[in-house]
Specification:
about 130 residues, alpha+beta, tt1808, chain A, 6-stranded mixed β-sheet, two-stranded antiparallel ribbon, about 15% helix, globular
């Protein structure tokens, strides 16, 4: 994935993001807008986030409900869940109000391009073990 994205984004692994005054989760993977200091001066916020990816093995229900709601409510434009047990990628996007309106399920062999990173397709197989 990093090769495809080049310097169009910063890929953070289990780095904290500050969504609001009360919520500072540590997503498994977050793609951030590039910044010269690589966020050393403070955590990324919602406007810095291009995409969040959670890896779900035992946390699928929590990721689909609590985290999806939190990410949509705070304006994270795209959210993906790599569902390890079911070998699929769950895709959330298109925020309306405080919810994601778009939901898709993708399988190995399929490709998806983040809306904010046109020309940077990501293979579903690269997000699944």
């Amino acid at each position: 994935m990093v090769r495809v994205l080049g310097d169009r984004t910063i890929v953070a692994i289990q780095g904290a993001v500050r969504l609001d005054d009360f919520d500072e989760p540590r997503p498994d993977v977050v793609l951030l807008r590039p910044r010269e200091d690589y966020y050393s001066s403070g955590h990324a916020g919602p406007s810095d986030i291009l995409l969040i990816i959670e890896m779900a093995e035992s946390s699928l229900e929590f990721d689909q409900t609590i985290k999806a709601g939190l990410y949509a409510e705070t304006g994270v434009p795209e959210y993906r869940i790599a569902d390890i047990r079911n070998n699929r990628l769950l895709v959330y996007g298109d925020i309306r109000g405080k919810n994601y309106e778009e939901f898709r399920e993708l399988q190995r062999g399929q490709t998806i391009t983040p809306r904010l990173l046109e020309g940077c397709p990501i293979e579903v197989r690269d997000l699944l073990p």
